[in-house]
Structure formats: structure tokens, C-alpha cells
Amino acid sequence: MPEINTLTPATHLVSAKALFGLDVDIQVPAFVERDEHVPEIDPVYRFNPDATLAILAGFSRNRRVMVQGLHGTGKSTHIEQIAARLNWPCVRINLDGHISRLDLVGKDAIVVRDGLQITEFQEGIVPWALQRPVALVFDEYDAGRPDVMFVIQRILEREGRFTLLDQNRVIQAHPYFRLFATSNTVGLGNLNGMYHGVQALNHAQIDRWNIVATLNYLSAHEEAAIVLARVPELDTEPGRRLIGAMVQVASLTRKGFETGDLSTLMSPRTVITWAENSQIFGNVELAFRLSFLNKCEEIERPIVAEYYQRSFNDEILESHLTLPG
Question: Which positions fall inside the ATPase dynein-related AAA domain (predicted)?
């Protein structure tokens, strides 16, 4: 793992109102100096007030915070952008099927010392992060394997100690270690068929998360503002109308998903991609097909095409709604 100083860094208190525009009088610790593990600041990022307050509670009061919401809503980015403004080192781990218990805990490895091969214990990400002033973020938390989840459960207590059995060593968490997670579900499994591979989580473990924040889609006005910030070339009167129509299509797909008409929906991330691709190809309809329509089930494409027609008053050719052959 990349090195982060285990010493307690210099800190100062910052105002949540001044830094994030929250209407609360909360002081949050921030590090004086940045290092290479602090995320880069995105100056146009827009913070959700409730989620921001929940995440700040994690940083200021050492609460274990899970951010839950549909894909593309910026859950992980939200944590990173708060860490960036606090100069707080942040490490993200995706709990996909390839992450094992040994990756988290550590394992013996052969190393060369003074020209000799010896076996040495290499710490995994959990003991490494625990000993450092770092925010550890577990992405796709509800996709973790059961053996991996029980490793994480050991550090969910605020003063949780971590025992390395192979080393006969108990690790005490660094005063500025913080733990976060993001998930698409609330630990109940793949109820709507949208997130294959997610697990039903142990309720005793879910109960150990002090705060569960929800980050879902913004209002149409706020979403359009985010897209404009990402694609400033469209910040003209025609461009704003174009983005408004794009956001309307996205909203219709989300309503279609809620009513069971569609099995997929358009996230804010996809709307941004669509706007960017429209600049690349110079064709809004082509960019729509390449950014979203081609990801949909063939049987559902006429419904999506209808949403497009309603928003743009323009039809997609029938030949574009079927797979070749």
C-alpha cells in the first residue's frame, strides 16, 4: 500500500456553513496540509445538504456512515469531495468479488532482506488504514462476500480494535481514522432485479452503522445545473433548452422504472455523458442512442424512444430500435 504518515497531523477547525453552505453551526476538523492521497477538489461539485451533514458527522464525530442510493448519484464522489475540502486522505476500495479476506487482513509473502528470501507478513488494507489518519471508503458495500463482511464488522465499533491472529497483535484505531461505505441497496438484496450480485447483509452488521444517508436524484433544475457545469459549452440559451430536454428524458425513464415499464433508468452520470457525446458527434439523437438507448432491452426501446419524442418532438427511426440481424 502507498505510505501515509501514522503520526497525528496538524489540524484546525473549519465552519460547515462557510465551507459547504450548510445552515448549521458545526465545526469540523480539517488537516492543515494536503498530501498526495487527498482527492482533487472539483470546483463545480454540488453538495446534497442532508448527505453532506451526515458525512460531516462521520468526519467530525467519528461516526460510521453509509451512503445509500441508486447508481450514478455520486455517492462515493460526495465523500471524496468533502474529504478534499478537509485535506483528509481518502482511500476507496471496491468490494467486488475479487476482494478476499486476505486482501483486507493481510498475508505472508516472500521478501528479500539482505540478499536472503524470508517470509514476512504483509498488512492488508484494514490494518494499514486503521493505523493512519485516513478515510477508508468501501464502495459497493452490499456486493461484498460474507467472509469479507465479517472482517469489516470487527472495526464498525467506534473504538473498534482489530486483532491480527497470525501476529498475536491488537491494533488500536488512529484517532483520525474514519470509515464510510456506499451501497445501492439497504442490505436487503436484489429486490427489484436491478443490482445483480448484491447480497442480503447481516442485520447485526447494518445495525453497527451509526448513520445511513440516502442520496438519490436531484430536482430537474439542480440536475440541469450539474450538467451545465460539466459541459460549459452548452451554457447558452439553446444549450440550456437542450439540457432541459435531456433531463426530462431522464426523469421519464426513472418514472418508467418505478412503474415497472423499464428495467433500467438514466442516471445523472448518463445525462452528463449524453451531453458530452452530443458535443463529440454533433448529433443529439445519435449521442442518445450511443449513451443510453443501446443499453436498454430491445423490447423496451420503443418506450424509451417515446420518451425522447415527447421531450424533443423528434422521432427515432424504427431501424435504430432493433438489434441487427
Answer: 65-191
One domain, residues 173 and 147: yes
145 pLDDT more than 80: no
186 grid coordinates: 439497504
> What is the per-residue pLDDT for 318?
79
What is the per-residue DSSP string for 94-145?
A: E--TT--HHHHHEEEEEEEETTEEEEEEEE-HHHHHHTSS-EEEEETGGG--
Domain range for residue 38?
Answer: 11-214
pLDDT of residue 169: 79
Q: What is the DSSP letter of 176?
A: T
- One domain, residues 28 and 119: yes
Q: Domain boundary residue among 166, 183, 214?
A: 214
- Are 56 and 66 within 8 A, CB to CB? no
Provide the 10 A C-beta neighbour count for residue 8: 11
Global pTM?
0.81
